[in-house]
Design a protein that fits this description.
Elements: H1 34-50, H2 62-69, H3 95-109, H4 128-150, E1 153-157, H5 163-169, E2 174-178, E3 191-194, E4 198-208, H6 211-218, H7 220-223, H8 230-238, H9 243-249, E5 251-258, H10 265-284, H11 302-309, H12 324-330, H13 348-365, E6 368-373, E7 377-382, E8 388-392, E9 398-402
Parallel strand pairs: 1-3
Antiparallel strand pairs: 2-5, 3-4, 4-5, 6-7, 7-8, 8-9
Length: about 425
């Protein structure tokens, strides 16, 4: 029976948001394909939903959302995490980016994006295929509308609270900014994606010399609801724009309204996440469910897996450099008759490098991952052919390599 409620809880590490409008969709560098644009749209939308930047919140627990948003603490994968979705391998952090790309791939192709081929010798939940079929139907059905909305977006912008909630409620209908940069390019009919989740239509664009003039003509209730005086309103804008910049660029009042169709991108994605729930998200990350699985856990950061592998095996021996990973590999090279583990000779540093490269390849090629109790909780990966590796639940301790599953393998000391 699967086990629950043992998921590690990670501290939040959110990236700072920008207050400036971003480049228009048709001026992105290197002219991205529609699929790439949709992938970026989905990852941003997912980040917004997980960060609780809307009135719906998130269908997952706070701890689970924080874990999906967490960046890898030593930077492994953070900067280079925009590559196309891969159907194999241990997902890089932050996990929400991998999930966002996976969802966009799932919606665009109509097929589940992660490889779920069985691992010979390991029994899994027999209902997984049926669940994936049901999820696919719902994800594609809702996702088609998300893709249509993503293609409408002309500009993306950020709006702080409480003003974002006022935009959602329809209380705030005019957005005031300095008329510099991309703001000067906004036109009537453009679609604005606010905080990566709220889609608004530009109904009018008016120019003013100062924020004071804009507030007097547009009215406080339209621009800054709940602000009671013009003077107070000007001070709100002074937090973001200096008087010199205001005088140089002028001010633009952007009149916005909700689309005729009331369904917003964040509402559509919420429905998808609610349908998938934790089980579907874990499946999209490549996690499997077997007897003894802990069903609400996530794969640890790759940096932690590699760091645990690279700890010196015996620090009490003067001059010893052999890592725990290299020591573990030395126990396996002779068990496999086909030479799968490769050569393992040379100095300790050479053996360390050979074992490290082997593990890196396994992390990149893993098609099967599980967190289960054997008898202690472990994180386990396997590649095609069944070879694998194990760590402690949080990835902080490397526990060894694995031979392919074989009946009564322990009687043969796992030689094959």
């Amino acid at each position: 029976m699967a086990t629950e409620n043992l998921a590690p809880i990670y501290p939040p590490n959110f990236e700072a948001e920008t207050l400036l409008i971003m480049s228009p969709a048709d001026e992105h560098p290197s002219s991205p394909s529609p699929a790439g644009s949709f992938s970026e749209f989905m990852t941003g939308l997912l980040q917004s939903l997980l960060s609780n930047e809307n009135q719906l919140g998130c269908p997952f627990t706070r701890e689970f959302c924080v874990a999906l948003l967490r960046t890898d603490d030593v930077g492994y994968g953070n900067e280079g995490n925009e590559e196309p979705f891969s159907e194999k391998g241990v997902p890089k952090y932050p996990l929400y980016k991998y999930i966002g790309r996976g969802l966009s791939e799932w919606i665009s192709t109509g097929k589940f994006s992660r490889t779920m081929e069985p691992m010979e010798g390991i029994s899994e939940d027999e209902g997984t295929s049926a669940k994936i079929e049901g999820w696919t139907k719902k994800v594609v059905e809702i996702g088609v509308h998300l893709k249509e909305l993503s293609q409408k977006v002309r500009f993306r912008m950020h709006c702080q609270e409480p003003y974002f909630s006022q935009l959602i409620d329809g209380m705030k209908t005019v957005e005031g900014r300095c008329a510099s940069g991309e703001y000067s390019k906004i036109q009537v009919g453009d679609f604005l994606l606010v905080n990566q989740s709220l889609l608004l239509i530009v109904k009018d664009v008016k120019r003013y010399s100062t924020f004071e003039e804009m507030l007097e003509i547009e009215g406080l209730s339209s621009v800054l609801p709940e602000v009671t005086t013009i003077k107070e309103g000007v001070q709100v804008y002074r937090k973001f724009y200096s008087e010199a910049r205001e005088k140089e660029a002028g001010v633009v009042g952007i009149h916005v309204q909700h689309r005729v169709n009331p369904r917003q991108p964040f509402e559509l994605l919420y429905d998808i996440l609610k349908e998938l729930h934790v089980e579907g998200i874990r499946a999209l990350l490549g996690m499997r469910s077997t007897m003894g699985s802990i069903t609400d856990t996530l794969p640890p950061p790759t940096s932690m897996l590699l760091s645990a592998f690279s700890i010196v095996n015996n620090e009490t021996v003067p001059g010893s450099k052999l890592t725990v990973g290299a020591r573990a590999l030395s126990k396996h090279v002779h068990r496999c008759s086909n030479g799968w583990w490769g050569m393992f000779t040379g100095s300790e540093p050479a053996k360390n490098e050979l074992s490290f490269l082997k593990l890196q390849n396994m992390i990149e090629d893993a098609i099967w991952m599980n967190v289960h109790v054997v008898p202690v909780p472990v994180f386990e990966i396997r590649v095609r052919g069944g070879y694998g590796a194990r760590w402690s639940l949080d990835g902080s301790q490397f526990r060894g390599f694995l031979e392919p599953p074989m009946e009564e393998g322990y009687l043969h000391k796992w030689r094959h």
